[in-house]
Amino acid sequence: MTESAFFSKHKHWALLAIVLLAGCATTGTGPEAPAAAKPAAATYAKVDWKTLPAVSDADLQAGFIAWRSSCTRLKNDAVWAKSCATAAAVSDKDPAAIRQFLQRDLDVYALRAGGHQADGLITGYYEPIYAGSLTRTAAATVPVYGTPDDLIVVQLDSVYPELKGKRLRGRVEGKVLKPYDDAGTIAAKGAKAPVLAWLTDPMDLQLLQIQGSGRVRLADGTQVRLAYAEQNGHPYRAIGRWLVDQGQLKKEDVTMDAIRAWARANPARVPELLRSNPSYVFFVRNPDSPEGPRGSLNVPLTAGYSVAVDRTVVPLGSLLWLSTTRPDGTPVVRPVAAQDTGGAIAGEVRADLYWGSGDAAGKLAGDMKQKGNIWMLWPKGMALPN
Fold it and tell me: For the stretch 213-228, what's the b/e string if a residue is b when 16 or more beta carbons lie within 10 angstroms of its beta carbon?
């Protein structure tokens, strides 16, 4: 039976299976949650360029350069091809030329939650660097798995366009496709998958999976870069939420540092904490380079100027205007490039700002839970996303 015939015969089963097995659909830094339904009210409100908050020339240039790097993937895109071709001739050393290009070629749309609410949530993420080894050692005992040999992935929108972005994941047992093992089972029994590296702390693996990419620092000082490859199909559940539900942390106190501190103080309960998130991410090993990790658009991310978005609202490759703050209240107002997606990034006024690699970026990313506003810059004359 062909795949098309199978799904024609079992369409209702396939729709139910999406709920049971839906997982990430990105090839970038983070697992993507099942798409949230759009509100009935308009998401995009056209506004004048003059309503945008002012940005510095340095931020304008950096944001423009980050966005223009997307054009390696968008040069043949129906929406962005013409703008990318024009942008190629714009000097990134000339702020006036950048502003002229943007205002001539692009319209501005304020993003609104439910058609009315302008304020949204801006969080941060980063590329962690963890100590580890390419072989198991007395200290490095936590495996980082590549894609399992027995993981089956079916892209459903190849048959049903209304299921855009939906994938079915599982394993075949006999002639039945069953859900793949959850994270707790994989941690206990392993997976039929290559081990790409070994880490020294199970919390490092959990946070590596949450970030979706990272580096392993070996004993000789060299680093191995790991990028998101696949996911087990189970829904992502925030371990911070579990700690709140267990009365271990207050909601307003949940940060990466707070979770780490709890784990150090409660080592016997760490396996229970990790089992609370059934999602499990598998990785691929990439060559090390000074570039940022590649996001869902498959271009290197730029620290401070690339964001993960809900691509049911903001198509990948879009240029956004972001107004938010750092955790210390310092303003962050700049153009940013929508180049990634993430499991917790769902909603109209929602973005996850990539801050770079290492501990300093991790501290900033872990503390980011800021209010913010987002405007989408969209090519003139092109239909808005639907």
Answer: bbbbeeeeeebbbbbb
